[in-house]
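Hello,

Following up on my earlier ticket. Below are the four sequence lines again, exactly as submitted.
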Amino acid sequence: MQLSNTALFQGITQEEIARMLACFHARTERCAAGDTVRTYGHGPEAVGILKSGALSIERMELDGGRTLLESLAPGGIFGEVLAFSSLAHESMLVVAHAPSEILFIDYAHILKRCEKACAHHSLLVRNVLRLVSDKTVRLSERIEVLSCRTIREKLLCYFGLCAAQAGARSFTLPTSLSGLAEYICADRSAMMRELGRMREAGLVQTEGRRITLPEKPF
Amino acid sequence: MQLSNTALFQGITQEEIARMLACFHARTERCAAGDTVRTYGHGPEAVGILKSGALSIERMELDGGRTLLESLAPGGIFGEVLAFSSLAHESMLVVAHAPSEILFIDYAHILKRCEKACAHHSLLVRNVLRLVSDKTVRLSERIEVLSCRTIREKLLCYFGLCAAQAGARSFTLPTSLSGLAEYICADRSAMMRELGRMREAGLVQTEGRRITLPEKPF
DNA sequence: AAAAGTCTATTGCAATTGCAACAGTTTGGA
DNA sequence: TCCAAACTGTTGCAATTGCAATAGACTTTT
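Thanks for your patience. The regenerated structure is below:
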């Protein structure tokens, strides 16, 4: 895992990164599969970058249940939101699903002005800001989808976003149909039923995960 | 409107702010009620701070309709997400609802390291980061609410969040009941009906906007 | 090669929901 | 003060949806 390929260190050379990590007092932790790496919700926070292995971010419900929030592959970053927010009453778990190496950087070090060495410090800050902003945009899009009243509207709204992103009326879903149902928070069988009706009505063409919208009659 | 009272400049003295604004090449624009201040979605972006007046952020739908995203009071900030995101294919409007004064700062200046003067520059960056992160947390909470399948679950989920925030089983809704229905994306009358049922079932007590949850039997 | 797990697909049925319509109350301006 | 606009409250009805159950296809692991 080259850190220079991660979203956090994008645009910074490997040598610069090495110098910055020293300056930031970054530290690497190792853990085994099944370990709970962190619980968030209190104390001075740190941002984590997964160097190798696999992590999942889960949310602790009041009733003790857990909800999967995110799955992280090497290069992924976590804690960037909670670390910088002043709200953050959530309690979250970071769980390892494989032996993992994680690099931690205290958020205070990222923000603090540093006197020497780190010429690329401002680039790092820009990257963090971009990461958090991107997440906000993704969440806003999902809210837009979820705010539709019917499954049909939700699907059309989501497909519209996908088509805009692909720049074409035809695109492939990034997830399984089951995943799509979860994304739009609808029952999978009800969604399949509605998809069928929409196909009949000529609102979409589907071929597995390949979706094609009809030409706009604008 | 004192800039030192805004979330963006929190913790920075008025004199420091004056110096920073010069350093950032900040500029003030004035506009009349009804003016479209900005359309986002392209070009080098700027962050705007409303000094006086009233603004609303609206989203342009494909069909030409508009959705209200946010209403801004003096001290409010806009553009902080789109300015820093790399996704951002949205098109948004900023519309004035009263004669307004708006301070614009190019995002590039906020991020750029500045050689002299701005000792509090890093505090400003921290504030931006906190603003964006807070917004992310709020959006995540709303998604959590919207991901519930039934109106009853949505309400209980939302009330749970409110109670946690208030630190008490009793709290006052920040919006009207109509606003609440909009927040949970449900039909108002259906929500009223369900609220009635929940009252009967002893799941909540309501008195106008005052909500009280029963003691937890955990 | 078998097994376990996930994904796709379909259907009946009961429950929830959106919609439309109406009426009384409160709020904020003109 | 009076009017308009927004908010609260309620109901019938049709449509959508979630849930449960079932089954075949596909993947990955053992």
